[in-house]
């Protein structure tokens, strides 16, 4: 029996429904919008009916699309469970785990963890995506990612959240700048240009809250999305910054002043997954590795 659809087409169709647009679905899948549109058109052609229609600024299901959506989700979940069940009979751990995380953890924590996983489980592939906490958690909710390792807090009734790692913040400045005190208070930074993370991230919110608690309202000289760019601007003497210790390599400590904060400020990173998500063997390996990770 030849079915008029593929699982890939069903995945694209349900993701368009969940995100409300072709462009958002394409972004989640890491493909172009025309590719998503082509998959949906092919599915509609094979099914012999329209499945999606535009409702205001979003895309919604037609009556036929509503019917298909329920069956599609059941088929996709059955496919995932089948793949995991068969993999459990093989030797070792295999398959793909889709992980979402922030750029700092991706650069400074994940490489050595993924290196160990590849050494111990060469048939297991960990596909990593980066973004801010809200975007990553949204993709986990949509089942576009299996697992998130992000800065907390995360508020969602459908998510299981496990705090995993504490990462302290420090002030960094160039060696050529005025010498920082042994421990730095927010008021010490009131008149110094600051290079901060771009707005919207949990990390930026935590830094701003720490400053505001001491009555310091910061006006950043620069707001950047790359922690490596922030360090380079600080090294060039264009301002100081407040960064997580995880982001500082040995070489950074030799070319930058680094001081603890008073009162101390830290962020908490944690594992986030759907409560109804079956835990495959590959996910178990990754969860165990992340749970035992330590910031330097």
UniProtKB/TrEMBL annotation:
<dbReference type="Pfam" id="PF03466">
    <property type="entry name" value="LysR_substrate"/>
</dbReference>
<keyword id="KW-0805">Transcription regulation</keyword>
<dbReference type="InterPro" id="IPR036388">
    <property type="entry name" value="WH-like_DNA-bd_sf"/>
</dbReference>
<dbReference type="InterPro" id="IPR005119">
    <property type="entry name" value="LysR_subst-bd"/>
</dbReference>
<dbReference type="InterPro" id="IPR000847">
    <property type="entry name" value="LysR_HTH_N"/>
</dbReference>
<dbReference type="InterPro" id="IPR050950">
    <property type="entry name" value="HTH-type_LysR_regulators"/>
</dbReference>
<keyword id="KW-0804">Transcription</keyword>
<comment type="similarity">
    <text>Belongs to the LysR transcriptional regulatory family.</text>
</comment>
<dbReference type="Pfam" id="PF00126">
    <property type="entry name" value="HTH_1"/>
</dbReference>
<feature type="domain" description="HTH lysR-type">
    <location>
        <begin position="5"/>
        <end position="62"/>
    </location>
</feature>
<protein>
    <submittedName>
        <fullName>LysR family transcriptional regulator</fullName>
    </submittedName>
</protein>
<keyword id="KW-0238">DNA-binding</keyword>
<dbReference type="GO" id="GO:0003700">
    <property type="term" value="F:DNA-binding transcription factor activity"/>
</dbReference>
<dbReference type="GO" id="GO:0005829">
    <property type="term" value="C:cytosol"/>
</dbReference>
<dbReference type="InterPro" id="IPR036390">
    <property type="entry name" value="WH_DNA-bd_sf"/>
</dbReference>
<dbReference type="GO" id="GO:0003677">
    <property type="term" value="F:DNA binding"/>
</dbReference>
């Amino acid at each position: 029996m030849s079915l008029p659809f593929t699982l890939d087409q069903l995945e694209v169709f349900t993701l368009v429904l969940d995100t409300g647009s072709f462009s958002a679905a394409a972004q989640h899948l890491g493909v172009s919008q025309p590719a998503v549109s082509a998959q949906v058109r092919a599915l509609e052609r094979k099914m012999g009916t329209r499945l999606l229609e535009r409702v205001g600024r979003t895309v919604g299901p037609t009556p036929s699309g509503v019917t298909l959506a329920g069956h599609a989700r059941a088929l996709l979940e059955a496919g995932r469970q089948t793949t995991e069940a068969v993999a459990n009979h093989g030797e070792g751990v295999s398959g793909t785990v889709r992980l979402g995380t922030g750029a700092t953890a991706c650069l400074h924590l994940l490489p050595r963890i993924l290196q160990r996983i590849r050494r111990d489980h060469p048939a297991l592939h960990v596909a990593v995506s980066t973004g801010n906490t809200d975007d990553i958690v949204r993709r986990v909710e949509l089942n576009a990612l299996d697992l998130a390792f992000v800065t907390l807090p995360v508020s969602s009734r459908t998510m299981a959240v496990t705090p995993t790692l504490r990462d302290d913040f420090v002030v960094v400045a160039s060696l050529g700048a005025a010498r920082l005190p042994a421990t730095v208070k927010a008021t010490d930074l009131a008149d110094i240009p600051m290079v901060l993370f771009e707005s919207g991230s949990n990390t930026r919110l935590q830094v701003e809250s720490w400053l505001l608690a001491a009555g310091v309202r910061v006006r950043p000289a620069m707001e950047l999305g790359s922690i490596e760019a922030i360090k380079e601007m600080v090294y060039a003497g264009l301002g100081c910054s407040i960064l997580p210790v995880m982001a500082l390599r040995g070489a950074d400590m030799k070319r930058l002043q680094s001081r603890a904060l008073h009162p101390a400020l830290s962020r908490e990173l944690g594992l986030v997954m759907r409560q109804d998500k079956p835990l495959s063997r590959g996910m178990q390996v990754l969860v165990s590795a992340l749970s035992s990770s330590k910031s330097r």
